[in-house]
Every structure is written in C-alpha cells, then in structure tokens.
Amino acid sequence: MEILQATFISSVADLAKCPPPDKPEFAFIGRSNVGKSSLINMLANRKQLAKTSNKPGKTQTINHFIINDIWYLVDLPGYGYASVSKSLKAGFGKIIDNYVLKRENLDCLFVLLDARLEPQKIDLSFLEWAGTAGVPIALIFTKSDKLSANELSKTMKRFKDVLTQYWEEVPPSFITSAETKRGQAEVLNFIDEVIRN
Ligand code: GTP
Ligand code: MG
C-alpha cells in the first residue's frame, strides 16, 4: 500500500471526542521522543503532517488522520514523560488509558522502541499492561539509521528474550528509520493485510 492521501482530522484530549469508530484504525505510541510523529511523516511521505520536535512531550493529544479515505492513522502522546503513574494499575494517564483500552476500532497499536536502547522498564511495563488487556500490538524499532546491523540485531534479541518471558508469541516487529525510510513498505503492507483480513 502507498499513502496517496493523508488528511488531518482532529486533535483531541478525550476519547469521546474522537471521530466515530467507523473505519479501521492504527495508532502509534511509545516513550516521548522515540520518533512517533517522525515515523508517521515518513510513512506518509510528508514533512509536517504530524508535528515533530526534539523536545520530549511535543504531542499531548490524540491526533487522527484519514489515509486514502480508508483508514485512520493516530499519533498519540508519549508515555513516560509527563505524569506517568508508578503503579501499573493506574496506567499511563487518562488520555492514553482510555484510548488504548476503549477505542473499539483499534486494529493495531504500534509500540515504538528506540533501537539504540536496551529494554527500558517503562516500555516493558507498557507492553505488559497493554498485552494483558488484550490490545493488538506490533513493535517498531525506530532510529535504525543510528546503529550498525550488528548493534541492531543485539537490541532486538535482548527485547525478544525479555518478551518471551511473558508472551507466548512475540508480537510482529519492524525496523524503521525516518531518515532512510527503512521499513516504510513493510509497515504499510502489514497495515494493508490487517485491513483486508
Ligand atoms: P513526542 O511527541 O514528544 O512524544 O515525541 P515523538 O515520539 O513524536 O518524537 P518525534 O517524531 O518528535 O522525534 C523526536 C526526535 O527524534 C526528533 O529530533 C527527530 O528528528 C528524531 N528522530 C525521529 N525519528 C528518527 C529517525 O528515524 N532517525 C533519526 N536519526 N532521528 C529521528
Ligand atoms: Mg510526537
């Protein structure tokens, strides 16, 4: 699939104000500054569809875009920057909790992980929390342009080793770069397949 049309729809701080759940939806989440907004621009071949910044915490709302008139793409706020609760039960803040747990047309939540870092506590907590709640997840390792192939396979292996401790099956995973466009076709084809099934 190629993104031929990408249009901003809304930026809201409340699940109830999201567009009606009448289309397949794919959302992007991860720690602040992991590269969510940059990845969305890369997938859409746009420079400023989603707002990016080198200051963590740029995206604070639920941002819907309609793609090819068929599906919704969603840029979410980062977790682990603002007031993230220490207790797993309390979740990751009201906006994220409500959206992730209650958005009925959410077909896949892409969880972005910085390919340069070993598994971070907050990422593992998020994966455990969302996984336990039965949210459909895929992993995206971002900023791969900053690593050698060898370093990259080391991080991925470390992640998979940790995840297999509590997931029977490790979720689908992708390696991306907003700089080189690595992973663009793979992620879009995956979305296409999910929509068709
Ligand atoms: P918040 O909205 O604050 O949660 O951040 P975000 O996850 O949307 O991150 P954003 O896309 O704004 O990117 C954060 C910083 O990382 C920016 O300075 C980007 O230029 C940089 N960045 C993002 N993706 C990549 C990448 O693939 N490669 C490199 N080298 N830098 C990247
Ligand atoms: Mg952002």
Automatic annotation (TrEMBL):
It comes from Chryseotalea sanaruensis. This is Probable GTP-binding protein EngB. It comes from the Bacteria. Its cofactor is Mg(2+). The keyword Magnesium applies. Keywords: Cell cycle, Cell division, GTP-binding, Magnesium, Metal-binding, Nucleotide-binding, Septation. Necessary for normal cell division and for the maintenance of normal septation. Residues 22-197 form the EngB-type G domain. Pfam families: MMR_HSR1 (PF01926). NCBIfam families: GTPase_YsxC. GO terms for biological process: division septum assembly. The lineage of its organism: Bacteria, Pseudomonadati, Bacteroidota, Cytophagia, Cytophagales.
